[in-house]
Every structure is written in structure tokens, then in C-alpha cells.
Design goal:
β4 and β5 form a beta hairpin. By secondary structure, the protein is of the alpha+beta class. The protein is built from two helices and six strands, in the order ββαβββαβ. Helix content is 21%, strand content 40%.
Length: 73
């Protein structure tokens, strides 16, 4: 069952299933370590504002609009 990253609860570990966007956004997220198959920890996800993720040993911030286009399971 997949859902948008913006819907994942804080502290959950999710796996990126798909990125529903254009080539440039996929490239940019890939440079940050987010691509299909990546496991990430949702560090902070408030009702509004950006989503903070832990990818490997780094924390990255993804805008809410981008988080809506990242499908996870």
C-alpha cells in the first residue's frame, strides 16, 4: 500500500516507491539521496511546512509540495 510521503507519521521508516514528477525534480531528489528503493526515517512532519527526513547519516528538508509527489510504502 503506497501513500504520499507527506502523509507518513513522524518516526516511521518508509521506502521510496516512486517519484511522480518531472526529470529535473527526480534528478534533484536523487542528488539528495532520495530515489526508488531508498529507506528513510521521517524525522519531523507537522501539519504544514516542510518534511524533515533522515537519509543515511544526513537530515534533509523536503517541501510539502515535493513530499506529496514522493510515494512511499
Amino acid at each position: 500500500m503506497s501513500m504520499a510521503l507527506s502523509m507518513a507519521s513522524e518516526g516511521s521508516v518508509v521506502k521510496v516507491k516512486d517519484i511522480v514528477s518531472g526529470v529535473m525534480m527526480k534528478k534533484r531528489l536523487g542528488e539528495l539521496g532520495l530515489y526508488e528503493g531508498t529507506r528513510v526515517v521521517v524525522f519531523k512532519n507537522d501539519v504544514c511546512g516542510p518534511v524533515i527526513l533522515k537519509v543515511l547519516d544526513s537530515k534533509i528538508v523536503v517541501g510539502r509540495g515535493q513530499a506529496m509527489k514522493i510515494m512511499v510504502e
